Structures are given as structure tokens and as C-alpha cells.
């Protein structure tokens, strides 16, 4: 059935100079494929590529899809590929991250795939330590690492650490609402991901979370406790621009996960778009819409601009159903201070049932 998407677009560490292993020109498939999608990452992509090429584990291929960049990214990628034969550049028109990820999954020659973002940095021992873990734990199909945070200039940021579970049991317990796996820091079994259906376009901006939920039902997962990837934080990055879409799609992904655990056929399957919020109860049962609204509002409580712009009707319904939630009254105050008195008044009215 054709559906209009609920939201979104249509259907620190400083690694320094580390010596790399000699390039292994093995005609056979390497043990590891690295998958990097690039879109207008000119200021950062050269550093990201160098942090991969400088790994102490050097037997890999590096697939880089340039997803229609309009900046200097393609030139940087081609220059790096001319210098290192392990790089396989793919330059094409813009199709989005999910299409890029699925394309690299199908092009990869290795049994293991390492994800890497074009604006982040890897510690020199990242691949060696992750591949060593997988060799010692053959029942695990995915291994992540902790991440540090860096600013636009690469300097470490003083932020409270996010401590993710390291064991499979801990990750299963955290799957619903707490941080689990860093998408930019995982290595996973290519065959498992392909057999699970790859990345699903309907879950754009939460495509990794949807994948972790599906993989959790077929393999064991873990994290290394050390921060072996540096996640770069800067204004305007994708996670900030699509906060509401990400939260909504993650909520629906959880509903699909629970449905599969209960023995249902996945209600979304290979649909290109997710159902609207007012369709959820009819698909997943009573309370599904309220659950997703709550996840969206709680994820965006401190982003009033996003709530009033993209999730206004959802916020009013949630407020009407939860008049005793003091956080919503405080949110009304933040909306007022943001220069939107009419919306602050409407939210207050919803909270008192007017």
C-alpha cells in the first residue's frame, strides 16, 4: 500500500600519525570491507580516510560512495584512491544514505564490514581489536566500540561520557530506549545483514537502530569499552536536522521488533514509507500511537523549534493525554521564551484540557 511518509524526506580521540601495515595486494577477498558514505564532507573526509589507511590491521578494502556531493569531496576521494589501491571509489548521483549503505553491502568482497562516517576518526588499533574480538567470539555477529566526541577542529570535547553496555545481555536490556551500538563504530557480518534484509529505506535516520533490532534476534552483539572512534560534533549535522523523523522512525522500529518477537509477520516489511501516527493503533494494537508520540516528545523535549515545526499536532495530542506531566509545562515555557506565545498558549490549553 502506498503511504505518505509520516516525517522527513519522501519515498575524542586524536589519532595522530600512526604507521600502517604494508598494503596487502592479495588477489583473494580481504577479511574486512570498510563502508563509508560521503556527502559534502569536504572539510573532514581526508582525515577520516587517513585514519582508516593508518590502521595497524591493514588487510581491508575501503569502499567509498560519494552520494552526489557538490563540494570538493569527490576530488579528495579520487586523490586518495590514486595513492592507495585498497580504496574502491564509487561516485554517483545523490540517492541518500540508506541506498549508499545497501550498495556497499552488495559490492563488498569481505565477510566482515566495518562502518565509518566521513566526518569521524578511527584510533589506529580499532580494526585490529574488533577483528581480534570476533576471532575469539565466533558466536557474535556484530561488535561495536565506545566513542569519544570531538569538535569541528578535531579537538576533544568535554562532555559526560555515554557508557554503553558491553555484553549481549546488556545490549538486549538497553535496546528500547538507552544507547546501544554506535553505527559509525561497528563491524558486522555481511551475510547476516544481507539475510536480514539490509537497511530498510522506510526507517531513514533510524536505519541503524532498525537493523540492530533485527540482528538482535539472530546473533549476539557486544561493544568494546574503549573509545576507538571519535565522533565529530558540529552545527547542522544530519542528526540535528532530522531529530523528529529519527525519533518517530525509531518508535515504529520498536513496535515492529515487538511484533516479530510475538510471532507476527513484520507489519512494515519492505514498505518504502512508514504509516502515519494515526494509523499505528490499527496496525499494532491499542496504545501504539501514544507510545510513539511519547518517544518523539521525550526525545525532543529540549528542541522546541523541532516540536513546533514538525510535530505540533503530535505534541498537542500528547499534552492532552498527559496533563500532569510537569516537563510539558516547562516545555510550554521554553516555547514562550523562544518567541512563540500563541503556540505556548495552545500547548497550555491542551494541558488543562481546553
From TrEMBL:
It comes from the Bacteria. This is Glycosyltransferase. The keyword Glycosyltransferase applies. InterPro entries: Glyco_trans_2-like, Glycosyltransf_2, Nucleotide-diphossugar_trans. Keywords: Glycosyltransferase, Transferase. Gene3D superfamilies: Spore Coat Polysaccharide Biosynthesis Protein SpsA, Chain A. It comes from Novosphingobium ovatum. Residues 33-145 form the Glycosyltransferase 2-like domain. Belongs to the glycosyltransferase 2 family. The keyword Zinc does not apply. The lineage of its organism: Bacteria, Pseudomonadati, Pseudomonadota, Alphaproteobacteria, Sphingomonadales. SUPFAM superfamilies: Nucleotide-diphospho-sugar transferases.
